[in-house]
Amino acid sequence: MLIVRGDPTCPMTISRLKYEMEPWWFVLLVGDSGIIPSTSPSTPSASALSASLPTPIAPPPPPLPPQGNEDSDTSSKSSSLSSVILPGSVTPSRKAILDFLKNMMPIEPVQDITTETFLTEEAVFTLVAAYLPDGAVKKSQLAEWMAKDGAWGVTKKRRTQSERIQGRQYNLVKESFRDYRWVDLNNVHQFRRHVKFTKDSTMTIDYVRRSKTTKSLGSKLKSLQLQSVKLIKKSLCERVFGSLNTLSSSDIISRDHNNDKKWLDKITNCIGNTQDMIDELNACLKKIRLVTIDFAGCCTNTDFLRNFVSIRTRLSSGLLYILT
Description:
Layout: E1 2-3, H1 16-21, E2 26-27, H2 46-52, H3 70-83, H4 94-104, E3 114-120, H5 121-129, H6 139-149, E4 156-159, E5 164-173, H7 185-197, E6 202-210, H8 217-235, E7 239-244, E8 270-272, H9 274-283, E9 287-292, H10 295-298, H11 302-311, H12 313-317, E10 319-322
Parallel strand pairs: 6-7, 6-9, 7-8, 9-10
Antiparallel strand pairs: 1-2, 3-5, 4-5
Region (Disordered): 40-86
């Protein structure tokens, strides 16, 4: 394993289970351990792998008991290596699930974004399970994690017309803002694999935007926060840039010249505005992979978008990805 972000506090080697639970932090090395069959005629380069986006190959299964001569056993092992496929998603860790919950049910209410809702432990599990891979967490396990975390307080009993129920009062993000589900897990898995294979030559950055509306500042900031969380989880980006009170039809190059950056402190992981992103595009020696939620999240004016891509040579060498 290798450290993705160069954090010296992270281990240099970790277990396979840890890698599968948090694949965005670590890189699986292809070496002499047999992850890719040594019988293949040649090992393609990283650029070739990223261009063709091959189906991920899993580590070899445990050796089978001998059932014949040695040659036939070796042949069956080699054949099984090429047919074992990684699943479209991996089981998220406890920390990842709790972080996800704190974005879906923030501790403090946000005007126009959250609604105050009383939910039982079973209702919380049913709600969360729709956004996680099957079997990622059990109901009892989730309830225990939330109780030990303590962020939502203790459960309380409430009487209904037919019975007494036990649960908590939550600030639940409205469903229209809870677009965390991935329509095609295999597609996202291929994209993430592509990002890992090309990370040495291409930097992945995310861009989030919020229009100038009559909604409160807290509501708009929470919307930007939710966008950034979704993009980080999906695209394994290295940096996030954003723009507040900006029309989707406006020229990207002309945005955020007012130098107002106080709002950036309220958005986790967002390190700069549009002008900071443009400076990054000009200064970065790598190609740039720019990722946004949809066209409205970047720019709906195709002429402005085409002009922005054409004059930013590093970006035009890379790609603009739309993750919906």
